[in-house]
Known about the structure:
Elements: E1 5-9, H1 13-24, E2 28-32, H2 42-45, E3 50-53, H3 55-63, H4 67-71, E4 75-77, E5 79-83, E6 89-93, E7 101-105, H5 106-120, E8 123-125, E9 128-134, E10 139-144, E11 150-153, E12 157-160, H6 167-173, E13 179-194, E14 209-213, E15 218-223, E16 229-236, H7 249-259, H8 270-276, E17 279-288, E18 291-292, E19 295-297, H9 312-329, H10 334-364, H11 370-385, H12 393-398, H13 404-422, H14 427-430, H15 436-443
Parallel strand pairs: 1-2, 1-12, 2-8, 5-14, 12-19
Antiparallel strand pairs: 3-7, 4-7, 5-6, 9-10, 10-11, 13-16, 13-17, 14-15, 15-16, 18-19
The structure holds flavin-adenine dinucleotide (FAD).
Amino acid sequence: MQNKHVAIFGAGLVGSLLSMYLIRRGYRVDVYERRPDFRKNAAAGGRSINLAISDRGWKALHEVGIEEAIRKLAIPMPGRMIHAVDGALQFQAYGKEGQYINSVSRGDLNIAMVDAAEKAGAVFHFDQRILEMDPECNTAYMEDAVTGKKYTLTPDLLIGADGAFSMLRLTMMKTDGFNYAQQYEEHSYKELHIPPAADGSHRIEKNALHIWPRKSFMLIALPNLDGSFTVTLFHFTKGENSFAQITDTEKLDAFFAEYFPDVVPHLPNLHADFFGNPTGSLMTVKCFPWSKGNAFLIGDAAHAIIPFYGQGMNCGFEDCSVLNALLDAHADDWEQVIPVYERTRKPNSDAIADLAKLNFVEMRDLVADPDFQFKRKMAAKVAEKFPDQFIPVYSMVSFSHLPYADALKEYKRQDEVLSTFLQKPDIRSEWETKYFEEIANALCNL
Ligand code: FAD
């Protein structure tokens, strides 16, 4: 039994995972969440907002002993299904045979994790909001969201897992030497819904992440277990062709008919969804240090990223796994562990933030670009022939545990190599013959 009382603020995906790690290490763990207990209101939303889990996420779920339970909630997606405007479909595998990312309902995942954490011994306090903290005196200033009653907590350690708009981070921002940058994208997003077919099956291919790339904007769809899909439109917030211009059902119908005609028959509630659902903004947050006194940040509170690599949660889960390994290595000496944790994770969370931005361009534009597809084809062939010497960047990020910072470096290197070969006038006819050995040698030079 560790002689420490830990308070985690935020019972989201990362807070509930971290509570399991710390309970397993023998700490006394209380988790404070500003929302009501979402397990009691699970049916209220009725809809599934989903996320993609990949290998980094699975590793952490495995370490806390809930991988198998969560796999039952997940739908494998071995590749992207690209939808052209004329309805033509093209499937692009994400990796090798047997490699896939997984669609899981955010709500179901969060509920399963809180249930597992509670069963393990973490104590959850819902409707409890942290307003401010004093990290030097280990004090959290709290408010009961139902009664409005204010009170203080004095745990030994305060952990900010309170998401992209973290209150703990806000408090740290007022202290000397804290660096902070926040950047909003020009794009925002709106969630829509493809319901199941009459017989309960999926209306479009179940085992794929669907993308309708339209250069500067795109639509995506991820499958849910109940036969439905969560659809997300990423579009400019304002300007000539933007959300701001779609002001009535006529304009909405015209927009979908022009850009996404094949999906229209599958969106019977388009009008209600589009005008009823909020438009979400997309933001990247970078800050440092991630700790102050006896408080530190984890997950989106430390590094919110845009969702185009499907890695925000996976990165937050990896934070927890790395922290746990450091606690092992330093016999739970937090004074040693925290500086190493933040120094190790910071370059990696910065790198995945940058990769997510690059992948947005890839998803909305390049996947439909012939040069890009050709570069992918060359890289895929090298990966197939030399699986141990060459790992494509998507696989590094999604199917390995190599540091994100290495994946970013490799992205730049591989892209340069492939772009150089693309300049050769006879590359398209000769790449598998005259040039293949040269391409393979250059790409495998890890
Ligand atoms: P959150 O999940 O935001 O949890 C924070 C918790 O803290 C919440 O429960 C909140 O209510 C609580 N809280 C906030 N303030 C307070 C307070 N003052 N006091 C107490 N509690 C508080 N990631 C992936 O890995 N794969 C994906 O496919 C993916 N898709 C995404 C799609 C979209 C559209 C978006 C926006 C994000 C996506 N992400 C994805 C990112 C992922 O959602 C986040 O990285 C992840 O939710 C971070 O978990 P967290 O626990 O750090 O924060």
